Here is the input.
Amino acid sequence: MIDKLARRTYLRTMLGRVRWVLTCGFLGFFLLLAFTGQLLAGAVQDGNPGRSGQTLDLKSLPVKGKTTVVDCYSQYCPPCMSLAPLLEQLAQKRSDLVIKKVDIQRSEVSGHIDWQSPLAKQLGLRSIPHFMIFDQKGKLASEGQGAMKQVLGWLQEAGLLK
Here is the structure.
């Protein structure tokens, strides 16, 4: 039979251990979140990983609380390839922006821009690069030429374009 003092001592000890484990767990969780956030910050993200050229749920692209720039591109588009490193640098300089690249090119089509891809048809693309800008609430704020002008303005402000 356990007396009251032994039971109280045991419960205090166990409660202290539980507090320690919970504190370490929460601290580890928040450090992991912070570390992961730093890894993802400043990188252009793939908007359609493994699904290049396929239709896309546009509602999945915006990141709530951030301005999201979607860059529709093809590896066979020289202006797209010229802008890619500048967009990477812009993403590193502007933490308020999330830049996602969306490849319109189907993997089985090579040598030219794939205007017949399901994604190019879905978006009604006639020229690329084609930008879409979503506001912090996830609503489409600008697309096409207007979005291109905005992106070029941000690149100039960041000193990446002359």
User: Anything to note?
Assistant: Helices lie at 4-40, 78-93, 118-123, 145-157.
